[in-house]
Amino acid sequence: MKNKRKFVFYGILALVAILSISFVSYKQNLNPITFELVADGFTSPIKLVESPDGTGRLFIADRTGVVEIMQGNETLEEPFMNISDKMVKLKTEYDERGLLGFAFHPDFANNGKFYVYYSSPLRIGAPTGWDHTSRISEFRISDDNPNKANISSEKILLQIDEPQLNHNGGELVFGPDSYLYISAGDGGNADDFGLGHPAIGNGQDTNTLLGNILRIDVDGGVPSDNPFVGKAGRDEIYAYGFRNPFRMSFDSETGRLFVGDVGQNLWEEIDIVEKGKNYGWDIKEGTHCFSHETPNDSPLNCSDVGYNGEELAEPILEYNHSFGLSLIGGFVYRGSSIPEWKGKYIFGDWSNNFTKGAGKIIVAEEKNNVWSITNSVKLNSFLLGFSEDENKELYILTTDVLGPSGNSGKVYKIIKK
Questions:
Q1: How many percent of the chain have pLDDT more than 90?
Q2: Which among 5, 13, 6 is positioned nearest to 415, based on CA atoms?
Q3: Interatomic CA distance for residues 130 and 118, integer angstroms
Q4: Of 187, 236, 346, 415, which residue is least crowded by CB atoms under 10 Å?
Q5: Is the CATH number 2.120.10.30 carried by domain 3-416?
Q6: Cβ contacts of 331 within 8 Å, gap of 6 or more
Q7: Distance between CA atoms of residues 204 and 308, nearest Å
Q8: What is the pLDDT of residues 267-298, one digit of tens each?
Q9: What is the Cβ-side half-sphere exposure of residue 197, based on CA atoms within 13 angstroms?
């Protein structure tokens, strides 16, 4: 039996001592946390989702295009789905493409629908010389087996042509309004500049799907109150001005949308996103002015408004690259096992270097409408993402290698030590 098919029961604390992740609390005012291994043997796990049907099944999506099911105490022998033959061939040394998003329809228990964001080969009719096409597709479970996807049921909802292989965003989440929210990066390269990037940058161009948070009604097109419906700009856009909003989540109590936007050379930022607002890229990186001519130095002056004269929204939190290189958005904690975290935003950083995984879990707290980092925990792996189960407890997904290769990918549950 493969290691991946073993489930480490929560509460077997003897295993904690041998886990590959170590932790160091920077501050001692918060009881340290530790990790329980849920499953290993993956390549590049990016998301864990509990099916909203009362079965307790955990679906683990891997960047390689495979989704596994954990039921009870083991991973099922056959994967739930494998769409690797629909995807671009991934570069094993480093790649930001692949299966990037996975979400269940809010009424999945009755309709069997779920949604996938993945990198397909460049579609016919796409701009010449571009890299690939991102697809957001609807699938259904098989009629005769709830543990198998019906691959032939694919219904493509949206396609986004990508000029380069990086900055794909890729998150899919259903909001409190039951609409599907989609994070789309600026198309790649660097500085929002080059092939496929207009002079003002994709982040500021509302005539493209790139560089935005999108919102669609999977049961009926585009919500009529999206900000650009009936105006110049793409109807699917909910908010814009993003570089690479790789991960986002809704606070299950307040409904606020938290987005982690991966920065360029200097600054990482977290935004609370509201409909119709412009979040600044590539006029600003975080709260700082940005220029693609001097990406390693923030200009002293820049515009405080977008190209249509709209005010630029400020991030709630930022940090520079002496602390970490790529922000991984997380969740406002609403679980019960770590009372000290209640209402705090738990997020992380991918790594502080590209050679050996050195990610972080980071705790941020809001006081008097001001957010600040209060605690962080070091990892010995690359941090790929956070996930939340139906009890609002948190998980992290990691790998020990830079690219989508090997089988060092692991899933851990965060618990109080």
A1: 91
A2: 13
A3: 16
A4: 415
A5: yes
A6: 249, 251, 258, 345, 346, 347, 386, 388, 392, 394
A7: 9
A8: 999 999 999 999 999 999 999 999 999 999 99
A9: 23
The half-sphere exposure of 106 on its side-chain side, counting CA atoms within 13 A, is 12
Q: What is the DSSP string of 233-265?
A: S-TTEEEE--S---EEEE-TTT--EEEEE--SS
- For the chain, give every domain's residue range: 3-416
pLDDT of 12 above 70? no
CA 403 – CA 196 distance, rounded (Å): 25
What's the CA dihedral at 224, 227, 230, 234 to 10 degrees? -100
State the burial class of residue 132 (Cβ atoms within 10 Å of its Cβ: 0-12, 13-18, 19+): buried
Encode pLDDT of 202-261 as tens digits.
Answer: 999 999 999 999 999 999 899 999 999 999 999 999 999 999 999 999 999 999 999 999
- Read off the tokens for 32: 């340290």
* Structural contact between residues 173 and 181, judged by C-beta atoms closer than 8 angstroms: yes
Count of alpha carbons within 13 Å of 353, Cβ hemisphere only? 6
- For residue 63, the SS3 value is coil
The number of helices, as runs of H, and strands, as runs of E, in the chain is 1, 27
Max CA distance (Å), the chain = 62
8 A C-beta contact, residue 120 and residue 132 = yes
* Token reading at 150: 């019906």
Quick one: CA dihedral 368, 369, 372, 374, positive or negative?
Answer: positive
Q: Token pair for residue 236?
A: 């699917």
Q: Is the pTM of this model over 0.90?
A: yes
